[in-house]
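User: Once you have settled down, look closely at the record that follows, taking as long as you need, and be ready to discuss the fold:
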Amino acid sequence: MVSSFLKYLEYEKRCSKHTLSSYRNDLNQFDQFVKSYPEPGTVTSASHQHIRAWLITLLEKGLVARTVNRKIAALRSYYKYALKHDIIEKDPSRKVRVLKAAKNLPVFAQETEILKTLDQLVYQDGFEGARDKLVIEFLYGTGTRLSELINLNEQDLNLTNKLVKVLGKRNKERIIPIPSPLVEVIASYLELKRDRFSNNYSPYLIVNNKGDQSYPMMVYRIVKSILLTIPSLEKQSPHILRHTFATHLLNKGAELNAVKELLGHASLAATQVYTHNTIDRLKKVFDQSHPKA
């Protein structure tokens, strides 16, 4: 039953590989818990009491509310599917409430810091250095997600018109402008890529040292090594550059709806989290400038 549900998520709902993996793990974990319960069963035959007991166990292990809520979402989605297909008669997750989770504001680099870093970084000569520079410049210049960058093909680029077509979550396409300096970085990289892999050429934009499609850990390592040079950053990941991209646009007066479209968010709620950082900046300017502050 779980396998058919996961196929439904993959082929009909078009969920990402990350979402599928998370749901699979969450449902398998709950299934194992129910099987070891004093009144054993399966994820499909579980009761409300099974779910409550599992959630209590997770909290006792120290899992944060956000993680627990994701597992609740996985169960709700599964039981909704099972109920719709007459596999169960009653949804055991119906009365389960999500936990109140603290809202963490996005971590981002200050504009002066990231620009200074990008301007002063010295990359190694050749293909590897050009690729590493492209990774960091592309993530900050377009706000794309890690998965979007990895799956980007050269044919998605329109360097003449300075545009890139990105395939986001649930196969939703969006067009993002490419900053002029980034166009030059891409062109230089592509020339080196063609010279190095003339006999083994991959259509993917970002490739590893063998010419094959890049992978998440490779991009993580590239980004982390560069962001570590910014002392004020508590975290170093590709997503930090996405946060930085959005925050800097809003700080410069970009409309919230426009930033939403650039990021590929399904709703404004996901984008509005960046306005907190902008408001903090405005308050700081006010406190420093207004005579009555």
